[in-house]
Amino acid sequence: MVCGKCEKAMKTKNEPKTSTKAVTKEKNNERKVGINMLLEKKRVGYNPAVSNCIKCKKRLPSDDKYCLMCAYQEGKCKMCGVKILSTDTYKQSVH
Known about the structure:
Oligomer: single chain
Helix content: 25-40%
Structural class: mainly alpha
Number of strands: 2
Order of helices and strands: HHHEEH
């Protein structure tokens, strides 16, 4: 569940970005001299944008506050945590 404000933010975040990286890639293929390649190597497996669900502590791929199941059970927006709908009359199973 996503609120209106976060839905607008998602639309602007998913727009394709135009850049000229194709031109700069050809120039960067030159061999580098005098640089420690172990320090220059990109680290794999670390993503600072990864976060955990507040309720169940599951790993989330982006910086959301709740996973989809917890957000639906509590009636909150999964991105910002704002209460969207009342779940008092719902018959929900507890996992």
